[in-house]
Amino acid sequence: MTSIFRDNLLKDKVAFVTGGGSGIGRRIAERFAEHGSKVVLSGRKQEKLDDAARSIRAAGGTAETARLDVREYESLEAALQKTREQFGEIDILLCAAAGNFPALVSGMSANGFKAVIDIDLLGTFNTCRAAYPHLRKPGASIISISANHATMPIAWQSHVCAAKAGVELLTKTLALEWGPQGIRANCITPGPTDDTEGMRRLAPTEEARRAVERNVPLRRFGTKEELADLALFLCSDAASYITGAVYVSDGGQSLCRTGAVAAAAL
Length: 266
Ligand code: COA
Fold this sequence. Notes:
It is a single chain. By secondary structure, the protein is α/β, with parallel strands linked by helices. The chain is built from 9 helices and 7 strands; from the N terminus they run βαβαβαβαβαβαααβα. Helix 3 runs parallel beside helix 4 (110-131) and helix 4 packs parallel to helix 5 (158-178). The chain is globular, with a radius of gyration of 18 Å. 45% of the residues are buried.
């Protein structure tokens, strides 16, 4: 599906993407490439990265891959340095790497909680910190993918709730600290998004999907395309005065803090 925006909004820009091999990260990276940005896709699984890069190149875009885990700082540093050498300063940093599994606090080990904090929160810090020397100043745009978990306590999701709340405050702090150098930092906060690993884990059956939809005022899942266009807007010149913002794209789900039963009656 093509973007609703005019062509080539990101001509000659350079984007570095974590979690770029699949899901929301991949779709946003594809959108960036469709609009003329060179993209470096990073992630843990080389096959997924290769597949995403192949599809971008087949559509006429420029893509490279970097196999890494955002929990390993030195591998991020090396990949970002390489990106700089190959393409120049980085205009867009998309932090989309994330981990998730459903577990009650009482059924989760300290290491399980830490795994998600390390990927989502520390991984976002690592990516931004390692990218800092290579970001275009002024002009760079950082986008971190949060989730409604940041503001809605969700049972079975304590690790993600804690991590995403941290990601949103980290983003606002980066906006404060790096704003004077012309670096913007914003969050995209999706609600339930179709065709993602997260929703396959959290709503694996049709019944679970219907229950999720009943709790969303727009009564449907969001799409990766909708998030890709929001990301495109946020890193375009149209958003040049926007920093420290959290853009929620969730069909209104976060308005329904009273729970599934009350929301279904809306
Ligand atoms: N219930 C309870 N604990 C779980 C679990 C589950 N379903 N899945 C993993 N854990 C625990 C493990 O038991 C382990 O803790 P332990 O050492 O005390 O036993 C800890 O989490 C780390 O698991 P491990 O599989 O070694 O971590 P990993 O680094 O290989 O994987 C995860 C990270 C756990 C987040 C994994 O789900 C993952 O790789 N996810 C990536 C894809 C994804 O989640 N996408 C959706 C994003 S929204």
